[in-house]
Amino acid sequence: MAVPTASTRSLRPLASLRRLTVAALGLFAAAGVQAADPFPHKPIALVVPFSAGGPTDVVARSLGQAMSRHLGQSVVVENRTGAGGTIAPAYVARAEADGYTLLIHHNGMATAPALYRKLSYDPLKDFEYIGQVADVPMTLLGKKDLPPNNTAELVRYVQQNESKINLANAGLGAVSQLCGLLFEQATNVKLNVIPFQGTAPAMTALLGGQVDVLCDQTTATLPQIAANKVKLYGVTTPQRIRALPNAPTLQEGGLKGFEMKVWHGVYAPKGTPAPVVARLTAALQAALKDPAVVKRLDELGAEIVPPAKQTPEGLKTWLKAESDKWQPMLRKAGAFAD
């Protein structure tokens, strides 16, 4: 048997060191491959500020299913409700900026700074913009036995009976609250505003006759209109809408300049990498061409926004414009801030 010499013994530690180095390099290489995994490589959460079954949730689920098909990963709707729709944006603003936590929100992103003195996020500074989704018209409704039969008669009726009229909304920060405020200003009245915790209980109160008037989006009101369970006075858009072709606009009824729609945008936490934002925007744009999404949104009375708005810049520009429009009005109202 050969006896190890001093030189061979001294080479053994070097050989061991080489093996360790090769193993370490292998680990680093594996980590590099994992870090370079293409986005997305796991499910994405699409956070909704309102309850399941509500108008924004319905839009989110239709959109999420289509985006899943184009991304190759599940887009899972997650409802984080409360505080007038401000809990979900705060949660997403604090989430890791990796593209796996997204927010879908409506006009509330523009109005929250005027409604809450201690907002924990800045809608204009704490998010990356993915793009707009769809515009949803609103409808002004009355309980079935409310005497007026058209907008002009309704205006005269509320002006003569303002202390007796109960105006419902879905709560602080809801689009129905904004529409109600716009209606009060347009008719120069101060009604008894009754806030509810969501659209469903507000509609239930209208159907039951506990309240007189409600202004809310077609995603929530079309079934009751179709069933002839409420009085429809008009839509809040400048032109008549496909979903209700025979319904006049409120402007036709004499409320000049009365225009409001619900708009939805998708956001990611600030600092999300530009390639990830681009990938998400492309998936959003593809989803908005998906026949199933087009059909579903059309059934809800929603209208997909033009391609120029389905972009980060389109959403950013619109959010700034809506913030400039609504925040002064809400601050002037005063009582709407908490």
Automatic annotation (TrEMBL):
Pfam family, one: TctC
Family annotation (InterPro entries): BUG, Bug_dom1
Coiled coil location: none
Signal found in the keyword field: yes
Keyword Kinase among UniProt keywords: no
Organism superkingdom: Bacteria
Gene3D superfamilies noted in UniProt: Bordetella uptake gene, domain 1, Periplasmic binding protein-like II
Protein keywords: Signal
Signal sequence, start to end: 1-35
PANTHER family from the UniProt entry: BLR1237 PROTEIN (PTHR42928:SF5), TRICARBOXYLATE-BINDING PROTEIN (PTHR42928)
Family classification: Belongs to the UPF0065 (bug) family.
Protein name in the entry: Tripartite tricarboxylate transporter substrate binding protein BugD
